[in-house]
Design brief:
Layout lengths: L2 H4 L4 H5 L12 H10 L3 E6 L4 H11 L2 H10 L1 E6 L4 H15 L6 E5 L4 E6 L13 H14 L1 H7 L1 E2 L17 H10 L18 H14 L3 H14 L14 E2 L7 E2 L2 E2 H18 L2 H18 E2 L3 E2 L2 E2 L8
Parallel strand pairs: 1-2
Antiparallel strand pairs: 1-3, 3-4, 4-5, 6-7, 8-11, 9-10
Helix pairs in contact: 5-7, 9-10, 10-11, 10-12, 11-12, 12-13
Length: 320
Protein backbone atom coordinates (compact mmCIF):
# COMPACT_ATOMS: atom_id res chain seq x y z
CA UNK A 1 0.00 0.00 0.00
CA UNK A 2 1.23 3.49 -0.89
CA UNK A 3 1.28 5.28 2.46
CA UNK A 4 1.98 8.64 0.82
CA UNK A 5 -1.50 8.59 -0.70
CA UNK A 6 -3.41 6.64 1.94
CA UNK A 7 -3.66 9.61 4.31
CA UNK A 8 -4.60 12.12 1.64
CA UNK A 9 -7.78 14.18 1.97
CA UNK A 10 -8.44 13.48 -1.71
CA UNK A 11 -10.61 10.50 -2.56
CA UNK A 12 -9.05 10.49 -6.02
CA UNK A 13 -5.57 10.04 -4.58
CA UNK A 14 -6.68 7.45 -2.02
CA UNK A 15 -8.22 5.44 -4.85
CA UNK A 16 -4.74 5.16 -6.40
CA UNK A 17 -3.25 3.56 -3.28
CA UNK A 18 -3.60 0.05 -4.70
CA UNK A 19 -2.06 0.89 -8.07
CA UNK A 20 1.40 -0.60 -8.69
CA UNK A 21 2.82 2.85 -9.52
CA UNK A 22 4.77 4.27 -6.58
CA UNK A 23 3.01 7.64 -6.60
CA UNK A 24 4.17 10.74 -4.77
CA UNK A 25 2.03 13.76 -4.00
CA UNK A 26 2.91 17.17 -5.44
CA UNK A 27 5.56 18.09 -2.89
CA UNK A 28 9.09 19.36 -2.43
CA UNK A 29 10.06 15.81 -1.44
CA UNK A 30 9.24 14.44 -4.90
CA UNK A 31 11.25 17.08 -6.75
CA UNK A 32 14.20 16.71 -4.37
CA UNK A 33 14.29 12.94 -4.92
CA UNK A 34 14.10 13.45 -8.69
CA UNK A 35 17.04 15.84 -8.54
CA UNK A 36 19.08 13.52 -6.33
CA UNK A 37 18.42 10.48 -8.54
CA UNK A 38 18.59 12.47 -11.79
CA UNK A 39 15.22 11.20 -13.02
CA UNK A 40 12.49 12.88 -15.04
CA UNK A 41 9.17 13.49 -13.33
CA UNK A 42 5.86 12.09 -14.55
CA UNK A 43 2.81 14.02 -13.35
CA UNK A 44 -0.71 12.65 -13.71
CA UNK A 45 -3.46 15.23 -13.13
CA UNK A 46 -7.00 13.94 -12.91
CA UNK A 47 -10.24 13.87 -10.96
CA UNK A 48 -12.59 11.28 -9.55
CA UNK A 49 -15.42 12.42 -11.82
CA UNK A 50 -13.34 12.12 -15.02
CA UNK A 51 -14.16 9.00 -17.04
CA UNK A 52 -10.92 8.86 -19.03
CA UNK A 53 -8.89 9.47 -15.87
CA UNK A 54 -10.45 6.32 -14.45
CA UNK A 55 -9.80 4.44 -17.70
CA UNK A 56 -6.12 5.42 -17.68
CA UNK A 57 -5.82 4.47 -14.00
CA UNK A 58 -7.43 1.08 -14.59
CA UNK A 59 -5.77 0.15 -17.89
CA UNK A 60 -2.49 2.04 -18.09
CA UNK A 61 -1.24 2.77 -14.58
CA UNK A 62 -2.45 -0.61 -13.32
CA UNK A 63 -0.45 -2.41 -16.02
CA UNK A 64 2.45 -4.16 -14.20
CA UNK A 65 4.95 -3.70 -17.04
CA UNK A 66 4.21 0.00 -17.37
CA UNK A 67 4.28 0.49 -13.60
CA UNK A 68 7.70 -1.18 -13.46
CA UNK A 69 9.07 1.16 -16.14
CA UNK A 70 7.69 4.18 -14.29
CA UNK A 71 8.91 3.15 -10.84
CA UNK A 72 12.44 2.40 -12.05
CA UNK A 73 12.97 5.39 -14.33
CA UNK A 74 10.68 8.23 -13.22
CA UNK A 75 9.47 10.00 -10.11
CA UNK A 76 5.68 9.76 -10.51
CA UNK A 77 3.41 12.42 -8.99
CA UNK A 78 -0.38 12.21 -8.84
CA UNK A 79 -2.46 15.39 -8.56
CA UNK A 80 -6.18 15.83 -7.87
CA UNK A 81 -7.13 18.82 -10.03
CA UNK A 82 -10.02 19.67 -7.70
CA UNK A 83 -7.68 19.76 -4.71
CA UNK A 84 -4.92 21.72 -6.51
CA UNK A 85 -6.56 23.77 -9.29
CA UNK A 86 -3.61 26.18 -9.30
CA UNK A 87 -1.17 23.41 -10.20
CA UNK A 88 -3.59 22.02 -12.77
CA UNK A 89 -4.00 25.37 -14.49
CA UNK A 90 -0.27 26.04 -14.81
CA UNK A 91 0.41 22.54 -16.14
CA UNK A 92 -2.53 22.72 -18.55
CA UNK A 93 -1.12 25.97 -19.96
CA UNK A 94 2.34 24.44 -20.30
CA UNK A 95 1.17 21.33 -22.13
CA UNK A 96 -1.08 23.42 -24.36
CA UNK A 97 1.87 25.63 -25.28
CA UNK A 98 4.07 22.63 -26.12
CA UNK A 99 1.64 20.19 -27.74
CA UNK A 100 -1.49 22.18 -28.57
CA UNK A 101 -3.76 20.00 -26.44
CA UNK A 102 -4.96 19.91 -22.86
CA UNK A 103 -7.65 18.29 -20.74
CA UNK A 104 -7.98 15.39 -18.32
CA UNK A 105 -6.29 13.17 -17.61
CA UNK A 106 -3.33 15.49 -18.05
CA UNK A 107 -0.02 13.67 -18.50
CA UNK A 108 3.05 15.84 -17.93
CA UNK A 109 6.78 15.15 -18.11
CA UNK A 110 9.03 17.53 -16.17
CA UNK A 111 12.64 18.01 -15.18
CA UNK A 112 13.54 18.00 -11.46
CA UNK A 113 13.76 21.82 -11.58
CA UNK A 114 10.10 22.05 -12.61
CA UNK A 115 10.46 22.56 -16.34
CA UNK A 116 7.79 20.95 -18.52
CA UNK A 117 9.18 19.33 -21.67
CA UNK A 118 6.41 17.04 -22.92
CA UNK A 119 2.83 16.10 -22.19
CA UNK A 120 -0.53 14.95 -23.43
CA UNK A 121 -3.85 13.70 -22.16
CA UNK A 122 -5.05 10.08 -22.27
CA UNK A 123 -2.56 7.38 -23.25
CA UNK A 124 -3.63 3.72 -23.57
CA UNK A 125 -1.08 1.12 -22.46
CA UNK A 126 -0.37 0.10 -26.07
CA UNK A 127 -1.23 1.68 -29.43
CA UNK A 128 -5.02 1.84 -29.84
CA UNK A 129 -7.84 4.28 -30.61
CA UNK A 130 -5.42 6.01 -32.97
CA UNK A 131 -3.26 6.97 -29.97
CA UNK A 132 0.32 6.01 -29.26
CA UNK A 133 0.77 3.57 -26.39
CA UNK A 134 2.15 4.85 -23.08
CA UNK A 135 4.86 2.21 -22.97
CA UNK A 136 6.31 3.64 -26.20
CA UNK A 137 6.07 7.17 -24.81
CA UNK A 138 7.90 6.21 -21.62
CA UNK A 139 10.69 4.42 -23.48
CA UNK A 140 11.22 7.36 -25.82
CA UNK A 141 11.28 9.84 -22.92
CA UNK A 142 13.88 7.64 -21.21
CA UNK A 143 16.02 7.55 -24.37
CA UNK A 144 15.92 11.30 -24.88
CA UNK A 145 16.64 11.87 -21.18
CA UNK A 146 19.78 9.71 -21.45
CA UNK A 147 21.03 10.62 -24.90
CA UNK A 148 19.67 14.03 -25.87
CA UNK A 149 19.27 15.94 -22.62
CA UNK A 150 20.11 19.22 -24.32
CA UNK A 151 16.93 18.94 -26.42
CA UNK A 152 14.88 18.70 -23.25
CA UNK A 153 16.59 21.71 -21.71
CA UNK A 154 16.19 23.86 -24.82
CA UNK A 155 12.57 22.91 -25.44
CA UNK A 156 11.20 23.03 -21.89
CA UNK A 157 9.02 25.62 -20.16
CA UNK A 158 9.68 26.73 -16.60
CA UNK A 159 6.57 26.98 -14.43
CA UNK A 160 7.71 30.43 -13.35
CA UNK A 161 7.66 31.53 -17.00
CA UNK A 162 4.11 30.35 -17.71
CA UNK A 163 1.91 33.33 -17.11
CA UNK A 164 -1.27 34.67 -18.63
CA UNK A 165 -0.41 38.18 -19.76
CA UNK A 166 -3.23 40.68 -19.35
CA UNK A 167 -3.11 43.92 -21.30
CA UNK A 168 -4.38 47.14 -19.82
CA UNK A 169 -7.86 48.21 -20.89
CA UNK A 170 -6.45 51.23 -22.74
CA UNK A 171 -4.24 49.04 -24.92
CA UNK A 172 -6.97 46.67 -26.03
CA UNK A 173 -8.47 48.99 -28.60
CA UNK A 174 -11.93 50.39 -29.12
CA UNK A 175 -12.90 47.65 -31.55
CA UNK A 176 -12.23 44.80 -29.13
CA UNK A 177 -15.88 43.80 -28.69
CA UNK A 178 -16.54 43.86 -32.43
CA UNK A 179 -13.36 41.91 -33.16
CA UNK A 180 -14.11 39.30 -30.48
CA UNK A 181 -17.70 38.88 -31.66
CA UNK A 182 -16.62 38.54 -35.28
CA UNK A 183 -13.92 36.00 -34.45
CA UNK A 184 -16.07 33.83 -32.17
CA UNK A 185 -19.10 33.80 -34.46
CA UNK A 186 -16.89 32.46 -37.26
CA UNK A 187 -16.87 29.20 -35.25
CA UNK A 188 -20.57 29.28 -34.35
CA UNK A 189 -22.64 26.25 -35.35
CA UNK A 190 -25.76 27.81 -36.86
CA UNK A 191 -27.57 24.45 -36.97
CA UNK A 192 -27.04 23.21 -33.40
CA UNK A 193 -25.58 26.15 -31.52
CA UNK A 194 -22.32 26.22 -29.62
CA UNK A 195 -18.86 26.41 -31.14
CA UNK A 196 -17.32 24.04 -33.65
CA UNK A 197 -18.54 20.93 -35.39
CA UNK A 198 -17.17 18.14 -33.22
CA UNK A 199 -17.37 17.45 -29.49
CA UNK A 200 -19.29 20.23 -27.73
CA UNK A 201 -18.57 21.89 -24.40
CA UNK A 202 -20.64 24.66 -22.84
CA UNK A 203 -18.90 28.02 -23.32
CA UNK A 204 -20.59 30.14 -20.69
CA UNK A 205 -18.33 33.16 -21.14
CA UNK A 206 -19.06 33.15 -24.86
CA UNK A 207 -22.80 33.16 -24.14
CA UNK A 208 -22.33 36.18 -21.87
CA UNK A 209 -20.20 37.95 -24.48
CA UNK A 210 -23.03 37.48 -26.98
CA UNK A 211 -25.48 38.97 -24.48
CA UNK A 212 -23.21 41.92 -23.72
CA UNK A 213 -22.67 42.51 -27.42
CA UNK A 214 -26.41 42.90 -27.92
CA UNK A 215 -26.71 45.21 -24.91
CA UNK A 216 -23.85 47.46 -26.04
CA UNK A 217 -24.62 47.47 -29.76
CA UNK A 218 -28.41 47.45 -29.61
CA UNK A 219 -28.29 44.45 -31.94
CA UNK A 220 -30.28 41.31 -31.10
CA UNK A 221 -27.98 38.95 -33.02
CA UNK A 222 -25.77 38.08 -30.05
CA UNK A 223 -28.78 37.49 -27.82
CA UNK A 224 -30.38 35.26 -30.45
CA UNK A 225 -27.21 33.18 -30.89
CA UNK A 226 -26.83 32.65 -27.15
CA UNK A 227 -30.50 31.82 -26.61
CA UNK A 228 -30.43 29.31 -29.46
CA UNK A 229 -27.42 27.54 -27.91
CA UNK A 230 -28.98 27.41 -24.44
CA UNK A 231 -32.19 25.91 -25.80
CA UNK A 232 -30.36 23.31 -27.90
CA UNK A 233 -28.39 22.30 -24.81
CA UNK A 234 -31.44 22.17 -22.54
CA UNK A 235 -33.38 19.94 -24.93
CA UNK A 236 -30.34 17.83 -25.82
CA UNK A 237 -28.49 14.99 -24.18
CA UNK A 238 -26.00 17.25 -22.43
CA UNK A 239 -28.86 18.05 -20.05
CA UNK A 240 -29.93 14.95 -18.14
CA UNK A 241 -33.56 14.66 -19.16
CA UNK A 242 -34.22 12.18 -16.33
CA UNK A 243 -32.05 13.20 -13.39
CA UNK A 244 -31.53 16.86 -14.23
CA UNK A 245 -28.33 18.86 -14.44
CA UNK A 246 -25.81 19.41 -17.20
CA UNK A 247 -23.15 16.89 -18.10
CA UNK A 248 -19.59 18.03 -18.76
CA UNK A 249 -19.73 17.77 -22.56
CA UNK A 250 -20.99 15.73 -25.50
CA UNK A 251 -18.86 13.78 -27.94
CA UNK A 252 -21.01 14.87 -30.88
CA UNK A 253 -22.00 18.10 -32.58
CA UNK A 254 -25.74 17.77 -31.80
CA UNK A 255 -25.43 17.82 -27.96
CA UNK A 256 -26.87 14.27 -27.86
CA UNK A 257 -24.17 11.91 -26.53
CA UNK A 258 -22.75 13.09 -23.21
CA UNK A 259 -19.89 12.06 -21.02
CA UNK A 260 -21.79 11.60 -17.83
CA UNK A 261 -19.82 13.50 -15.20
CA UNK A 262 -21.62 16.55 -13.77
CA UNK A 263 -19.61 19.35 -12.20
CA UNK A 264 -20.80 21.99 -9.77
CA UNK A 265 -18.77 24.67 -11.54
CA UNK A 266 -20.33 23.90 -14.94
CA UNK A 267 -23.86 23.86 -13.58
CA UNK A 268 -23.30 27.02 -11.52
CA UNK A 269 -21.99 28.94 -14.53
CA UNK A 270 -24.84 27.69 -16.70
CA UNK A 271 -27.39 28.75 -14.07
CA UNK A 272 -25.84 32.22 -14.25
CA UNK A 273 -26.16 32.15 -18.05
CA UNK A 274 -29.78 31.00 -18.03
CA UNK A 275 -30.64 33.61 -15.39
CA UNK A 276 -29.13 36.46 -17.41
CA UNK A 277 -30.72 35.29 -20.64
CA UNK A 278 -34.12 35.03 -18.99
CA UNK A 279 -33.81 38.59 -17.65
CA UNK A 280 -32.88 39.75 -21.16
CA UNK A 281 -35.48 37.74 -23.10
CA UNK A 282 -38.28 36.71 -20.70
CA UNK A 283 -38.29 33.45 -22.67
CA UNK A 284 -40.22 30.77 -20.76
CA UNK A 285 -38.07 27.98 -22.22
CA UNK A 286 -34.97 29.66 -20.82
CA UNK A 287 -36.77 30.03 -17.49
CA UNK A 288 -37.62 26.33 -17.51
CA UNK A 289 -33.94 25.49 -18.03
CA UNK A 290 -33.00 27.82 -15.19
CA UNK A 291 -35.49 26.31 -12.75
CA UNK A 292 -34.56 22.70 -13.53
CA UNK A 293 -30.84 23.46 -13.25
CA UNK A 294 -31.26 25.07 -9.84
CA UNK A 295 -33.45 22.17 -8.70
CA UNK A 296 -30.74 19.68 -9.69
CA UNK A 297 -27.96 21.49 -7.84
CA UNK A 298 -30.00 21.80 -4.65
CA UNK A 299 -31.38 18.26 -4.83
CA UNK A 300 -28.24 16.35 -5.85
CA UNK A 301 -25.22 18.44 -4.86
CA UNK A 302 -26.25 20.21 -1.66
CA UNK A 303 -24.89 18.56 1.50
CA UNK A 304 -26.60 19.70 4.69
CA UNK A 305 -24.31 21.66 7.01
CA UNK A 306 -21.40 21.22 4.56
CA UNK A 307 -22.11 23.24 1.42
CA UNK A 308 -22.11 21.64 -2.03
CA UNK A 309 -20.44 18.58 -3.50
CA UNK A 310 -18.01 19.35 -6.30
CA UNK A 311 -19.18 16.73 -8.80
CA UNK A 312 -21.04 13.56 -9.67
CA UNK A 313 -18.85 10.82 -11.13
CA UNK A 314 -19.23 9.69 -14.73
CA UNK A 315 -18.92 6.06 -13.65
CA UNK A 316 -21.20 3.88 -11.55
CA UNK A 317 -19.70 0.65 -10.23
CA UNK A 318 -16.88 0.97 -12.76
CA UNK A 319 -19.15 1.51 -15.77
CA UNK A 320 -19.83 4.85 -17.45
Amino acid sequence: MNERLSNSNSGYLRKAVEQPVNWYTWSDEAFQIAKREDKPILVDVGASWCHWCNVMDDNTYSNPEIAKIINENFIPIKVDRDEMPDVDRVLQNAVMAITGESGWPLTVFMTPDKKVFFGGTYFPPEDMYGRIGFRKVLLEIMRVWREEREKIESGSLSLSDIRVVYKSVDSLGRNLLDDAFSYITSYYDIEYGGLGYGAKFPHTMVDLLFLNYSAVKGDDLGKKLGSFTLKKMYYGGIFDQVGGGFHRYTVDREWKLPHFEKLLIDNSELIYDYFNYYIATLDVEILDGLKNSVDFVIRELYIKDSGFANSLDADSEGIE
